[in-house]
Write a structure and sequence with these properties.
With about 425 residues, this protein is an alpha/beta fold. It has 18 helices and ten strands. β9 and β10 form a beta hairpin. About 45% of the residues lie in helices and about 15% in strands. It has a single domain, classed as Alpha-Beta Complex (Amidase signature (AS) enzymes), CATH 3.90.1300. It has a ten-stranded mixed β-sheet with strand order 1-3-2-4-6-5-9-10-8-7, with helices on both faces.
Length: about 425
């Protein structure tokens, strides 16, 4: 049901509809995706309090459980965070949603501490794909993407550090938006890596994303000419990428822009060659610094693999971190040069569609990071658009621009809605 249809419902009917749709979910999806659901009466009251003049008035939304909601524990996908960290009042983004008329209907589960791309969670269960239960929804914003794809709400909030909006949006076949690091919307969320963390959100279709972007980000003036951009193929980044996905993404992107010329393609790929290593070193070290006072007393409550990653990162030598900082600088300079002559860049979000549990290996994780880390290191905003694949699975294209209020995003969504 599109956003406008939700807005046409009475507050009582909208609250009842959210609860009915949650109740209709398969039990495995409901328990793995939904962290907390606002009681129906309270949700109806919150929806009724919105002003019809607000752009998102009467819209029920879900919020990833990294953002604080007053009176509700924040667990960040873990078994213990609510004991280690007090939950203050509403996060900045939650307050902003209320200011533009949306009502928080609940909170969503995620990969523990947002430290993964697959949707796996030892405590609350691996989040299944809403339409292919033998596959996973992707992560770390797994619950938010899955519940939008399932039609429970028209809008859900996520975060993206190394692809945590882009990957589940691509896997679940919804639209996603990743903002920029340091924005007020992310500064008071539970951090993974302050250097790379961003806030973001999901909608089912282009028209809804256009409305939400205007409400939460705004947009630059309509360009006087069609914006200029190029696309990279999945096989440009990873020759072993799924061939069906590669062809589908290339066909979709070609409707908006040409393929990158050889000089541009080689230059970008050369500049990104160390992106995954630099990202991994920086993010895990910052995660260690965030968690260092919890790692010992709460060791048994962490997912063991996440505890090990965070702990090991505290031992990284300074020369490794310095090399990572240099790669960050190199990639940002490369994108600055690119955006001097282009308005956007398009590339797939991942080299393969939604994963089975057996595919969730370190090697596959690294292959996905090859696609997502360039934008993460550059601190760039991204629009994710779904691409249909044979058999009903989906891929996603990430549209990178220089600013989060770039008119490129509205232009792309307008073209897609035609």
């Amino acid at each position: 049901m599109p956003l406008a249809a939700w807005q046409s419902l009475s507050s009582t009917a909208a609250a009842r509809e959210v609860h009915a749709r949650v109740g209709a979910l398969p039990a495995a999806l409901r328990s793995a995706a939904l962290a907390w659901l606002r009681p129906e009466r309270e949700l109806a009251e919150e929806l009724a309090a919105t002003d019809p003049a607000q752009p998102l008035h009467g819209v029920p939304c879900l919020v990833k459980d990294l953002f604080d909601v007053a009176g509700v524990p924040t667990r960040a996908g873990s078994a213990f965070l609510d004991r280690a960290r007090p939950t203050p009042g509403d996060s900045t983004l939650v307050r902003r949603l209320r200011e533009v008329g949306a009502a928080c209907a609940g909170k969503t589960h995620l990969v523990e501490f947002a430290a993964g791309l697959t949707g796996e969670n030892r405590t609350f269960g691996d989040c299944p794909h809403p339409h292919f239960p033998d596959r996973l929804a992707g992560g770390s914003s797994s619950g938010s993407a899955a519940l939008v794809a399932a039609g429970v709400v028209p809008l859900a909030i996520g975060t993206d550090t190394g692809g945590s909006v882009r990957v589940p949006a691509a896997f679940c076949g919804v639209h996603g938006f990743r903002g920029v690091p340091g924005h007020a919307f992310i500064r008071d969320a539970v951090p993974l890596s302050p250097t790379c963390d961003t806030a973001g959100w999901f909608t089912r279709d282009a028209a809804d994303m256009r409305v939400v972007l205007a409400a939460l980000v705004g947009g630059g003036p309509t360009p006087a000419r069609p914006p200029r951009g190029v696309f990279l193929r999945a096989t440009d980044l990873l020759p072993a990428a799924d061939s069906v996905l590669d062809e589908a993404c290339a066909r979709h992107a070609a409707a908006f822009c040409p393929a990158a010329d050889e000089l541009t393609r080689r230059g970008l790929l050369a500049d990104w060659s160390e992106a995954v290593a630099a990202y991994t070193a920086t993010v895990t070290r910052e995660a260690h610094d965030v968690h260092q006072n919890w790692l010992a007393p709460y060791r048994e409550h962490y997912d063991p693999s996440i505890w090990q990653r965070f702990t090991d990162a505290g031992k990284l030598p300074e020369e490794t971190l310095a090399a990572a900082r240099a790669v960050f600088g190199q990639i940002r300079a490369s994108f600055a040069a690119y955006f001097a002559t282009h308005d956007f860049l398009v590339l797939p979000c991942a080299p393969l569609p939604a994963l089975t549990k057996a595919q969730c290996t370190p090697e596959v994780r690294r292959s996905i990071l090859t696609f997502t880390t360039p934008a993460s290191l550059a601190g760039l905003p991204c629009l994710t658009v779904p691409v249909a694949l044979p058999g009903g699975l989906t891929a996603g294209l990430q549209v990178l621009a220089a600013r989060e209020d770039s008119p490129v995003f509205t232009w792309w969504l307008n073209q897609a809605a035609r």
